[in-house]
Amino acid sequence: MNRRDLVKSILAVAAASSVLNSTTALAGTNERMPVLFLGHGSPMNALRDNAFTQHLTHLGKSLPTPRAIVVVSAHWVANKTTLSATMKPSTIYDFGGFPEELFQMTYPCDGDPSLATRLATHLNEFDGDIDKNRGLDHGAWTVLHHLYPDADIPVIQLAMSTQLTLSEHMEVGAALQSLRDEGVLIVGSGNIVHNLGKLNRAPNANNTDWSVEFDELIKSSLLQRDLGQLLAQDRSKHPLWNISHPTIEHYAPLLYALGASTSTDDIRFPYEGFESGSISMRSVLFS
């Protein structure tokens, strides 16, 4: 089956074979893990107690406890599909201009170099590789801080390759799908609408019409599994794409989560809302 046919089929059937072979697979679980896509927005959400962060806390308590977490963050883009293989990942402060309190926060979880190495091998079609020094960027730790505040679950990150098309990003997600049966939570972290040039930082700023329209368009497309829209195969036919995503890195993590889902998953939206008038904070739960 070629890649185009794979994209058409991954939402219709579950993957037939495990990403990890029988000699290296994690111990099986009785319950399939869900898949999450989370809007992460401002790094300041790590410090905030609001409706968005409260929903993250609720999710962490309501979902099955994972034995490991794989995060695809908008803030790690590389030349290859790379897995962080660090035993004790550092907390990366990949931002500036925020209060010192934010720079004092840490997320002292373990990594899982063994899992990262195995995944890199099984993603060799996408130039799978490992990085033994990579820590956790704010697309990962600011949301994990609320989901799993005890930092007691191993976390690895997966870098999105600049060499892949949107369809191929989705295929990588499909290749991760069987990890769900092995106790691994797959998390995409980005934003369904993300244009920093259009922010309105005024208190109680009204949401822009175009951001609301695009957010609802993607919600509807997810429910209908409309790949033509979700993969933006022809941007000229969908002009809202250009203003909603001047660059695509905050949208692409959604495709990893979508690829890791199956047609039997319910699609729910645990949180819907906006930040600074135009940043969609929508979260998506496939379970």
TrEMBL record:
UniProt keyword Metal-binding present: yes
Signal sequence extent: 1-27
Superkingdom in the source lineage: Bacteria
Keyword Aminoacyl-tRNA synthetase: no
Domain Extradiol ring-cleavage dioxygenase class III enzyme subunit B residue range list: 65-263
A Pfam entry, by short name: LigB
Molecular-function GO terms, alphabetical: ferrous iron binding; oxidoreductase activity, acting on single donors with incorporation of molecular oxygen, incorporation of two atoms of oxygen; zinc ion binding
InterPro entries: Extradiol_dOase_DODA (IPR014436), Xdiol_dOase_suB (IPR004183)
Protein name: 4,5-DOPA dioxygenase extradiol
Organism lineage: Bacteria, Pseudomonadati, Pseudomonadota, Gammaproteobacteria, Oceanospirillales
